[in-house]
User: Fold this.
Amino acid sequence: MKTTMMLRALANGINPDTGELLSRSSVAHAPDMIRQLFALSEEFAQQPPEKKTKLSPEERQQKNIAEGKPAKSFFPWSDDEKQLLEAHYRAGKTPEVLSQEFCRSVRAVAIQLEKMGLITAEQLLSYGL
Assistant:
């Protein structure tokens, strides 16, 4: 439930979680509290919602690195990357080595290899995934 709606419910003496009336002894029934709850709800209602800015691919990679993730975490695999991944895997490189080359986690590499039919589900599990 939005903050504004929760505050208005409390100001009207209603439990925002259950919809039940609050007991008369509740602090929410005090006149000063009612005024403050309504004032706060108006304050929240007037604030524009925060807009999420869309990051460029480079900015997303930098954010991933700053968060301790591989640079291409949550990036889709391009067709070129898939072809290169297959070639490198067939040449004998392990998912651990490939994860470094492709700036992805070992998990992401192993899952992609399994999707491509290059390893089995059992092999995928052997990587602790």
In short: Residues 3-46 form one domain. Helices lie at 3-11, 31-46, 57-66, 79-90, 95-101, 106-115, 121-126. The chain has a mean pLDDT of 87.
